[in-house]
Amino acid sequence: MTPSWPRICNHPCPSKIRFRRNGDDLVYLKLGLDLPADFDPATAEIEIEIESGGESVYTGTLLVGDVAKRGHKWQFLDRRARKGSGTRDGIALMQTTLNRDGVWRVQFKAFSDLSAAVDPLVRVTVYVDGATVYEREEIWRERSNGFLHDLGH
């Protein structure tokens, strides 16, 4: 697989990753991935790992069968994740669609303790079935409530 983070829209919603720390720590990823045309989220194990300053601050894994097809989208939804009683590493939502241009649009939200994310040097790694489909390390803009990196710029 050739990893990339293409823009997922042309209006103001470029690929982005945001940490928010304000009581409910939130990992929010919105990105586009180039994956093989035969990729099936329902039959894949998908893992997101985030490091801050070289230290792991979040890992979330969806197992084979966790993601179900709903119309033209594939989705995992766990409303209990926000309250800490979720089933998959605080993952509240993982939704993906295949755009006409062959790019998989992914939206991911998870709640976790991100107090260890104090260094703006952040690495995000996405794995599908154990293979790295993307890894990116960047200095992120620190904000009063977390870190933000706009992958579209």
Which features would summarize this protein structure in a list?
153 residues; mainly beta; Immunoglobulin-like; 4-stranded antiparallel β-sheet; globular; disordered N terminus
Number of domains: 1
**Which consecutive residue ranges, at least 5 long each, have pLDDT under 50?**
1-15
Largest sheet: 8 strands, antiparallel
CATH architecture group name: Sandwich
Secondary-structure content class:
mainly beta
What would a concise description of this structure say?
The chain has 153 residues and is mainly beta.
Furnish the topology, listing elements before pairings:
Blueprint lengths: L15 E5 L5 E9 L11 E7 L2 E8 L5 E3 L2 E5 L13 E8 L4 E9 L9 E8 L2 E9 L1 E3 L2 E5 L3
Antiparallel strand pairs: 1-2, 1-12, 2-8, 3-4, 3-9, 5-6, 6-7, 7-8, 9-10, 11-12
Account of the 3D structure:
The chain has 153 residues and is mainly β. It has a single domain (16-150), classed as Immunoglobulin-like (Sandwich). It is built from no helices and twelve strands. It has strands at 16-20, 26-34, 46-52, 55-62, 68-70, 73-77, 91-98, 103-111, 121-128, 131-139, 141-143, 146-150. The strands form two sheets. Strands 5-6-7-8-2-1-12-11 form an eight-stranded antiparallel β-sheet, with no helix packed on it. The relative contact order is 0.27. The model is unreliable at 1-15 (pLDDT under 50).
